Amino acid sequence: MKASDLDRFCAGLMPERRTPESVDGIKTGEGAKELRKVGVTWTVTNAVLDKAERLGLDGIVTHEPTFFDHHDSAESRTASETARAKQKRIDELGLVIIRLHDCWDGYPEYGIGDATARVLGWTERLEATDIGRVFRLAETTLADLARDVADKLGCPNPRIFGDPATKISVVGLCWGHTSLGSVVRCTEAGADCVVVGELAEWQGPQYILDSGKTMIYAGHCTTEKKGMETARELLEKNFADVEFIYIDVPEAFGPPVL
Asked: Is residue 252 part of a domain?
């Protein structure tokens, strides 16, 4: 299979999202390269490149950017010594890197949102968009919900906004780097609490507190990477002649030190 065939398949998952402004597509390497062993990961870190070298990978499918810029612009690849060294190593390894972001977040069943909700055990969905979900839960407290989210997603240090004893029966899920608009949509759909990956502290949390609602910060990586495990499953089902290997990226934030 050529890299261009894999990229074409990814684009076809949600073709309406593969616009000229999309961040998806082949970011390094040539579309004509033959792929036999491909890594699937949340973002291409140096540790991921180490594993790619050990495994002898031909390519990597990643959700987030490689060069610390949402669009992986040409400028971002030379903006620092770290970025330049990473580009040099990718070239030396001959890796084709394909971004699967815009066509994946809202993809049904396998995509980021549905995969994360399934791991959390949230099934009674009240509302869904490409960038958010709202669910009804058995009544719990904010503190217990935060502990459950942390346990199921492997989040080392969730942050909560609001009274830990607040009763929660409707929850919103806005994975990754979300927007205030997505949080507002969840609360206006009845959510008592919104679980987010990350959001500016002066924005989402302050809106939540002024609204008398609650919020759990669970981390960008931890609210998305389950969806890259399912990406590997979907790719494997559709390309039997290629080996797809999931490569985990740990949450960047460590456990609390105090």
From this structure: no
- Asked if 13 and 87 sit in the same domain, the reply is yes
Once rounded to an integer, what is the mean pLDDT over residues 30-46? 98
Q: Is residue 258 part of a domain?
A: no
Q: Please give the share of the chain, as a percent, with pLDDT higher than 70.
A: 99
Query: How big is the chain by its Cα radius of gyration, in Å?
Result: 19
The whole-number average pLDDT for the span 96-120 is 96
110 phi/psi in degrees, rounded to 5: -90, -25
- CATH number, domain of 118, equals 3.40.1390.30
| Structural domain contains residue 253 | no
What is the tally of structural domains in the chain?
2
Domain carrying residue 96: 3-104+225-247
| Confidence (pTM) | 0.95
Is the pLDDT at 258 greater than 70, yes or no? no
Average pLDDT over residues 149-157: 92
Q: What b/e readout covers 153-188, taking b as 16+ CB neighbours within 10 angstroms?
A: bbbeebbbbbeeebebebbbbbbbbbbeebbbbbbe
Q: Residues 195, 241: one domain?
A: no
Answer whether 90's CB lies under 8 Å from 45's CB. Answer: no
**Closest by alpha carbon to 99, among 42, 46, 26, 45?**
26
CA dihedral 101, 253, 95, 114 (to 10 degrees): -30
Helices (H), 70-128: 81-93, 112-120
89 within 8 A of 49, measured Cβ to Cβ: yes
CA–CA gap between residue 6 and residue 235 (Å, rounded) = 9
- Residues 85, 23 share a domain: yes
